[in-house]
Amino acid sequence: MRQFVFLLAAVALGACETMPEFLAQPSTGSAPTASSSSTTATSATPARYTAPPEQQLLELERQLSRTAQESGLGGALASVIDPSEGMVIRPGVIYSTPDEVSRGLASPAGAGPMYWQPDRVEVASSGDMGMTSGRYVQVMSGSEAVQGRYVVVWRRDSSGAWKALTETRVPDPTRQTPARRR
């Protein structure tokens, strides 16, 4: 059984393009020459791994959340908003430039940290646009936390980096406290 597993592992390694050269069996049955090993080394460089767009957006959301803990939501969003076409929408106001976003979304007095978690990621088949959506919680000192949903529309810029075109957050409706029976 061990020999079978070893043979199976050797076959799997043989099919792998990134297998070390010293493990590769020569296809002609003879030992490789110096000239053939040098051409193999230069032409068979492993490809660099690129995460799928959905995973890239999830990681960007995690990074944005960490940045918001240090710089506040305005600072975090200003770092990823598209400088020419991006906007952040809040009830009654739209922030269009990174400076407006940073100033307009500065943490209010008494605000604690803000946390969010995407629960939906969609990417266009072309891979150049995407959307993330999820829940957020803004901790407020001395009162109940503000909770709600957010949506961010993303687009790749000319360098391939994801930039936010639109970000909006909508708080949950306030809960009515039940009337006490007498």
UniProtKB/TrEMBL annotation:
Residues 25-49 are annotated as: Disordered. It comes from the Bacteria. InterPro entries: DUF4440, NTF2-like_dom_sf. Gene3D superfamilies: 3.10.450.50. Pfam families: DUF4440. Residues 58-163 form the DUF4440 domain. This is DUF4440 domain-containing protein. It comes from Terricaulis silvestris. The lineage of its organism: Bacteria, Pseudomonadati, Pseudomonadota, Alphaproteobacteria, Caulobacterales.
